């Protein structure tokens, strides 16, 4: 693993709120994987990986990581920080779900989705790719760019056959939705 890029740098590049320190970010990542009941060796794919701030703590702890993002400059950083990872240039509503992984995460919520149809497509593809769980992180319900809040996300998931969703808020007050499939 490359040591040239720190987690602090990745957090800044991924435009995480200033309230996230490295320690609190590691705690969040650990909380997510513990809630989803997964551990080292688990394959985790982030459909909004950006520079890889969510994936780096996992890669450091033996998870098999990869992700997609339509922002080429951030993907280049993720590849440099985690050369063992598989990173694909694709928007979250258009990545190929054909290669299944254990856990699929949208670590930047719906912030990169431009329309509600993009959000629905992302949710459907995430569920198609995941064999164990999906997680939606950092959803700002007050400023959701495409109007995805707890109720709308629950409806999207229900339309796709999901019957149980664990909702909670992170340290910054943003919504987390964790789903075992």
Mean pLDDT rating: 91
Residues in helix, %: 25-40%
- Give the helix tally: 6
Radius of gyration: 15 Å
User: What's the total count of β strands?
Assistant: 7
Shape: globular
User: How are the strands ordered across the major sheet?
Assistant: 3-2-1-4-5-7-6
Find the structural class using helix and strand composition: alpha/beta
Please indicate the percent range of residues in DSSP E strands (runs of 2 or more): 15-25%
Q: Write the element-wise H/E pattern from the N-terminal end onward.
A: HHEHEHEEHEHEE
Runs in which pLDDT lies below 50 for 5 or more consecutive residues are none
For the record, give the distance between the C-alpha atoms at the N and C termini, rounded to a whole number. Answer: 30 Å
Biggest beta-sheet profile = 7 strands, mixed
Tell me what the structure shows:
With 181 residues, the chain is an alpha/beta fold. It starts with 6 loop residues before the first helix and ends with a strand. It has helices at 7-13, 22-35, 55-60, 72-81, 116-129, 150-159; strands at 43-46, 64-69, 86-89, 101-106, 130-139, 166-169, 175-180. A seven-stranded mixed beta sheet has the order 3-2-1-4-5-7-6. The longest helix is centred in the N-terminal third of the chain and has 14 residues, at 22-35. It has six helices and seven strands, in the order ααβαβαββαβαββ.
Tags for this model:
181 residues, 7-stranded mixed β-sheet
How would you summarize this macromolecular structure in one to three sentences?
The chain is an alpha/beta fold and 181 residues long. The chain has helices at 7-13, 22-35, 55-60, 72-81, 116-129, 150-159; strands at residues 43-46, 64-69, 86-89, 101-106, 130-139, 166-169, 175-180.
């Amino acid at each position: 693993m490359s040591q040239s890029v720190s987690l602090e740098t990745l957090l800044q590049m991924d435009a995480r709120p200033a309230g996230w320190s490295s320690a609190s970010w590691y705690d969040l990542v650990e909380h997510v994987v513990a809630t989803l009941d997964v551990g080292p060796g688990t394959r985790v794919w982030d459909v909004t990986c950006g520079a890889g701030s969510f994936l780096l703590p996992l890669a450091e702890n033996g998870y098999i990581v990869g992700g997609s993002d339509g922002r080429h400059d951030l993907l280049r950083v993720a590849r440099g920080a985690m050369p063992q990872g598989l990173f694909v240039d694709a928007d979250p509503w258009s990545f190929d779900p054909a290669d299944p992984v254990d856990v699929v995460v949208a670590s930047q919520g719906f912030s990169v989705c431009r329309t509600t149809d993009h959000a629905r497509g992302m949710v459907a593809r995430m569920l198609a790719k995941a064999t164990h769980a999906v997680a939606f992180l950092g959803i700002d319900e007050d400023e959701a760019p495409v109007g995805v809040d707890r109720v709308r996300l629950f409806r999207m998931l229900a339309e796709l056959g999901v019957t149980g969703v664990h909702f909670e808020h992170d340290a910054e007050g943003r919504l987390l939705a964790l789903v075992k499939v």
